[in-house]
Amino acid sequence: MPPKRKKAVLYTETSAKKAKNTEDNISSMQKYFKSALSCEASLCKYSDRKCEEWFYKYADENKKFIGPVGIERLCKDLQVEPEDVVTLVIAWKLGAESMGYFKLNEWKNGMASMECDNIIKLKSMLSSLRDLLKDGAQFKKIYRYAFDFSRDKDQKSLDITTAKAMLLLLLNNSWSLISDFIEFLNQSKYKIINRDQWNSLLEFIRTVSSSDFSKYDETGAWPVMLDEFVQWYLDKTKMS
67, 144, 150, 188: most buried by Cβ count inside 10 Å? Predict the structure, then answer.
């Protein structure tokens, strides 16, 4: 039998090495993706380092805060609109001081409390964050937080335009008279809403829940604005 050609032997050895390397690479890739999928499924352990790196993905050029543009990108990644009330709940969980801005310390402290260090984890929490709005005690905290969150920090009151926008955001799905109240504000003399008026409105809604105001006590200690709303609404319904 004639001897095997050396070239064929070299080809066979090389092929074997390539095949082994390919198998090793496939095995490594399988282990990597298995690990990655396992990590995603369990959502992994919270990492302060990853959370900070995540912050810088959205941070402004100076890296000190996430501004309006970064928040818009965050909302896009979460697949929610910036005007979605859940964004307010997220801001509340972060303890954000100013509307449209998240500071690094706010981000890290708030995300740590939720054990979120990536977009997948935060997205998985959106449903539970929305559920907080259905809890009376939690909603009251979020509602009161919204006043300070949305006001100019050099002002003690909310300008009427911002107040109406926040009230619609918070109450549109829970108070049947919100449209009437906004209409009342539009034709009223009020240019601002102060803290007492803001806080009292929620108590008013919970206490005087019916549209006929049968539970309304005109001798109660409600702000004048709410007394005027009741009278305006009753006059309006009589005319219709």
Answer: 150
164 and 109 belong to one structural domain:
no
Q: How confident is the model at residue 43 (pLDDT cuts 50, 70, 90)?
A: low
Global confidence as pTM: 0.80
* Domain extent at residue 194: 154-239
169-225 pLDDT, tens digit per residue, is 999 999 999 999 999 999 999 999 999 999 999 999 999 867 788 889 888 889 999
Among 99, 98, 54, CA closest to 77: 54
Could you tell me if 125 and 162 lie in one domain? Answer: no
Asked if residue 53 and residue 125 are part of one domain, the reply reads: yes
Dihedral-angle region of residue 155 (phi above 0 means left; psi in -120 to 50 means alpha; beta otherwise): beta
CA 216 to chain centre: 35
CATH code of the domain in which 53 resides = 1.10.238.10
Specify the number of domains making up the chain.
2
Q: How many CB atoms lie within 10 A of CB 135?
A: 11
26 lies in a domain?
Answer: no
**Three-state secondary structure call for residue 156:** coil
| H or E, element range at 27 | helix 6-42
